[in-house]
Amino acid sequence: MTQTLDIVEKERLALQIELDSRKMQVERNRLGQFATPTALARDILGYAATLLAPEEQVHFLDPAIGTGAFYSALLNTFPQQRIAKALGFEIDPHYGQPASLIWQDFDLTLKLADFTYEEPSPRFNLVICNPPYVRHHHIQASDKERLLHRSFKASNMKLSGLTGLYCHFLALSHAWMAEGGIAGWLIPSEFMDVNYGQVVKQYLLSRVTLLHIHRFDPNDVQFADALVSSSIVWFRNAPPPPDHDVMFSFGGTLAAPKITRMVPVKALAHEAKWTRFPASEIRSRKTGPSIADFFQIKRGIATGDNGFFILGEETISKRGLPLELFRPILPSPRYLPEDEVTADKDGIPLVERRLFLLDTRLSEEEIGSRFPALATYLEEGKAKGVHEGYICDHRSPWYVQENRPPAPIVCTYLGRGETKSGRPFRFILNNSRATIANVYLAMYPTLMLQRYLARDPGLTRLVWQVLNAITPEQLLDEGRVYGGGLHKLEPKELANVDASAIAELLPRFERGVELTQLDMFGVGELAA
Length: 528
Ligand SMILES: C[S@@+](CC[C@H](N)C(=O)[O-])C[C@H]1O[C@@H](n2cnc3c(N)ncnc32)[C@H](O)[C@@H]1O
Fold this sequence. Notes:
Layout: H1 2-21, H2 25-30, H3 38-51, E1 58-62, H4 69-77, E2 83-90, H5 93-102, E3 109-112, E4 124-129, H6 141-155, H7 165-173, E5 177-188, H8 198-206, E6 209-215, E7 230-236, E8 245-252, E9 257-264, H9 265-269, E10 295-299, H10 306-309, E11 310-312, H11 313-318, E12 326-329, E13 340-341, E14 355-358, H12 364-370, H13 372-383, H14 390-393, E15 409-412, E16 414-416, E17 427-430, E18 440-445, H15 447-455, H16 459-468, H17 472-478, E19 480-481, E20 486-488, H18 491-496, H19 500-503
Parallel strand pairs: 1-2, 1-4, 2-3, 4-5, 6-8, 13-17
Antiparallel strand pairs: 5-7, 6-7, 8-9, 10-18, 11-14, 12-14, 15-17, 15-18, 16-20, 19-20
């Protein structure tokens, strides 16, 4: 029998290659047609066998069967007498018809049909699927409505219109699963980190018992022709037991992953990015204070045109521009060799590049009558089209800047993982009156921290030292990674970083205690 199976599998593989080669890539993308390699399909079915009871009869369903990689692996894994039923759907006759011929002597029902229209019957205790990876913008609007409705009916998942087809397959299949049945889904890892995946994660945590998520190493691409970072998600169709732990693994193979970590469902419930696991520690958000408890974080000013609005003091004096309508602004981080900015008696930073931002709410008429040199400068800007840029065009008057009072501590917004200092982001103690552009994040103490600072002004320095002692791993864990090892830290991400070390500096620190009367940084007035 094994020999026959090997022959059929060889035939199926040859057929797969031939059918793939006869299809245009665009068309394959449209229907998400990327087959599972034999070795991976066998790993998956082998793993499934460990999740079913030893003698349990198998009722197998593959809602997107293609030429039948998983069915073939099923035959390879389970003795024939254990396979009670096998059903597969395939929308595309290009694959479905020749596949039916290959499997004609086997007990497989292969329906040439669109799975998303099928009426479910909850009979299957083993659902294994590599669903089509079709992004939402390739799903027609009318189809989307239908899918959203049917997915909800099948699983109670209120998916968003931005959801890819693979999540609908997962949702729809719920109604096909027998109670206690097992599902293994080979899907993109994306759902673990993005907004539309939130509903799927909620389903995995509350409706079924999530058993294991194995993420393949993106550098070890499983699908020769689809550059996707994929995961396999295993769950049982049963409500989760209390205090349930989920296995997260990464790299290697399903049976022998490179790293593994058990994560309690409770921790997953308030973790926005599941791809942190298994590499990162589990954090207990609910108990530990985060930076948001101590700082309100705002991105620096998007001026609309730094070259026009930010000037050196020589240019200002040479052109006779009114310095009182400018405010100091920090130069970009590469011009700040130190992590502390000192200032002269007027609060102007003592740095090599002393820069000023044009920052006035005066009308053009008023400027025209009181500050003719500035009026001429603005006219020059208009002649260059500065006022028509996206940002300038959306504010009135076009040169007005966002309100960013000087922050006592600022953080660099973009960092490289591999800097000489080993610190991708820097916290800078700002003793000046300078504001910042959007290469920095401004950190304004919350009212609660202001209360402590009012009593002990030296505390700002201690807090700054503690911030700079936060490990790159803690910070990068929150930030996103861009190409070339560039990391970006959004205000919300910085706000989420653990700040127990700051809490330790504060005597009798109590979360949630706010003092409403004190707002020395004008944080309350900042626009969102
Ligand atoms: C990612 S491939 C996986 C094929 C196969 N199960 C494997 O693992 O090699 C997805 C398959 O689903 C099929 N498909 C796409 N949309 C479908 C639908 N609405 N109903 C049924 N099959 C569909 C595609 O034609 C393709 O063969």
